[in-house]
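User: I'm new to structure prediction. If I give you an amino acid sequence, what do you actually give back? Let's try with this one:
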Amino acid sequence: MNYLGALLLGLSAACHAPASDNAQQDTALRKKDTVKFQEVDSSKLVIAGKQAGKIYIGQYMEQVSELMGRPDDGDAAMGSALGIWYEGDEKVLKKNPTVIFSSYRDSNMVIRAVKQVSVAAPEFQTAQGIHTGVRLAELLKAYPLLRKTETYVNAQKDSVFVYDSVADGIAFDLQRDTCTAITIHVKNRPANAVYLPVHPEWKKL
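Assistant: Good question. You get back a string of structure tokens that encode the predicted 3D arrangement of the chain. For your 205 residues, that looks like this:
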């Protein structure tokens, strides 16, 4: 009886061990595939198709002026405008710009509203932790619909590649496989569907 009991106990353990191992493996895989979200300062939160920090699609430019002040640089044509702001000490070096493209809200041509906003400071990030400085491979994991839509070069033969997830309303500038700017735009409308060049110092190929 003792021998039979030991044999049955061994068989029972052998049958249950693989199930336990499989359960642990399934749990590990689920954890690996789960998108990690993290707390982000609302003033720096990037939401595809909606906003970058305090600037959001459809916001009146009067409100933007109250938040940002006068732009440090920009351009205007045919009722549209491109404003560029640099943060604090970066104004002299012209680094980490916030670029806002706006146009008139309607045919009355009275109120201009934000149509697109681009940020470069690494403090701006999505809830998934996407920010400037990350690699293309990481961007593709977060936004599988990303496609290369434009290429720019400058006098030094450097290149900027624009990857856009049109349906999501988010695009990324990349130099040497690294994100240098994040652009939030209207969903299902390409980031390049603007009247003024977002990269005036670069030549579009």
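You can read the tokens as a compact description of the fold. Here is one thing that stands out. The chain has four helices and twelve strands.
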